[in-house]
Amino acid sequence: MLSGGWIQRGLFQKIDECVKADDGQRYIRGGPRFHIALDNLRVKACIMSCGALCPGINVVIRELVMALRYNYGVAEIYGIKWGFLGFTKKDCWVKLDPEDIKEIHLLGGTVLGTSRSGFDGEEISKEVIKRNINMIFFIGGDGTHRGIKELSKIFKEKKKKIILVGIPKSIDNDMPIIDKSFGLESAIQESVRTIRAANVEANCNLNGIGLVKLFGRSSGFVAMLSTLAARDVNICLIPEVPFNLYGENGLLDFIFQRIQIKEHCVIVVSDGARFSVKDYKTTNGRPVDDIGLIIKKEIIKKSEELGIEVNLKYMDPTYVVRAVPANEYDCNLCAKLAESAVHCAFAGYTNFSVGMINNKPCMIPIDKMCGKCERKIEFNSDDYLMLLASTGQPSFYPQGSEKNNKKDEKEQDNNSDKNSDKNSDKISDKNSDKNKEDSSVKSEGDDSDENDEKIFNFH
């Protein structure tokens, strides 16, 4: 029996059990260990959420508290309000008890609040040390993970043994390595409602056009998977695929061809498609701010030129989608991630993030979670091929040869990188190539030492 609760012996993970990921590396599997490295009576834990809202954050918070209290008997658990900003403010530290948070999984958003700013590694470390906190759980995206990396470096310099654990969060599903981010399924479910409403509007009005803009700054998973789930979409635009608005084979030409034949059209566009439109230039030369509004404006302009009256309904449910409570699938996923994070922390591991790899919770080095976004839709993936079959849309960028497409993708990545700080947690990533020894997981199944990374174990 562990301090505070029962875990069946058969559920304990072997310490060297690994799971192979798509990148070819093996990551240590999460889950409870028979031997724990920490004294639960001396553990003081805190939890914070950072960055944009996403369905499921409250579920993660709830399950972290429940696992800490009932599986390991931790008495002192604190929540940090307003992200990194709250660490240095006395009134932002709130004690979390199971009775107070037992129903927050039914709510959207985060009961701890969130922010994108306020990171000061030195001041945060002083406050953490002053309060004798020795276990911190961070819920956030790539910016939050850069913050964890910086704090790990500071605590190491100060020779303080503090467990740092990340739970990756991204409604765009663009975090690398892991199968999928929590909140994605809930976002798809809510997005489908809007798409179906747009389809009703388009079909119930002569020459009706339903235009829906969804999340997806650098990856179009929400738009693509929502399109596949809705089954009513005629055009889906995502950041990974370049397109032209104008010309014989452009988007506008196809829309009005369809209007003349079918008398309706349903369009789903990902927010990041603003980086992939190739023939629309702004006055300042920067990517367009809102691709949905641009397409809407150009459709109306084209209809006037052609003398074809259209009935266009533009729907932008972005902030509705990210504020909904987690659905049943995401509740289950969040619980797995939170419980695995606590189990691995008590086994003595630190400086890692927990995510599902091949449907198994695993520990992933912080370094690998806070670099450049790696997760994008592949053109030869089953889902993308199904998307093309479902919508029947052609290529809106036919003149791009394979060489030009690669060049376009590189330009798109550069544009996305330049704008990513506006939409991600604003944490500096200084000396990113140093301190590789702070990574949490050792590559296995490869004899080379090129990617060897270690977990700190305070046993």
How does the major sheet shape up? 7 strands, mixed
Strand order of the main beta sheet, please?
5-4-3-6-7-13-14
List the uncertain runs. Answer: 401-405, 418-459
The dominant shape is elongated
Mean pLDDT: 86
> Which percent range fits the helix content?
25-40%
Order of helices and strands: EEEHEEHHEHEHEHEHEHEHHEEEHHHE
Find the count of extended strands (DSSP E, 2+ residues): 15
Q: Which band does the percent of strand residues land in?
A: 15-25%
From the alpha carbons, calculate the radius of gyration and give it in angstroms: 24 Å
Please state the structural category: alpha/beta
- Per CATH, the class of the largest domain reads Alpha Beta
Oligomeric state of the chains?
single chain
What's the number of helices?
13
CATH architectural name of the largest domain: 3-Layer(aba) Sandwich
> Can you tell me the CATH topology of the largest domain?
Rossmann fold
Task: Report how far apart the termini are.
Answer: 19 Å
Number of domains: 2
Show the helix and strand layout.
Layout lengths: L17 E3 L5 E3 L15 E6 L7 H15 L4 E5 L12 E3 L2 H4 L19 H10 L4 E6 L1 H16 L5 E6 L15 H20 L4 E7 L6 H10 L4 E3 L13 H12 L1 E7 L20 H16 L4 E5 L2 H6 L4 H19 L2 E2 L1 E6 L2 E6 H4 L12 H10 L10 H22 L32 E2 L2
Parallel strand pairs: 3-4, 3-6, 6-7, 7-13, 8-10, 8-11, 9-10
Antiparallel strand pairs: 1-2, 4-5, 12-15, 13-14
Helix pairs in contact: 1-10, 3-4, 5-6, 6-12
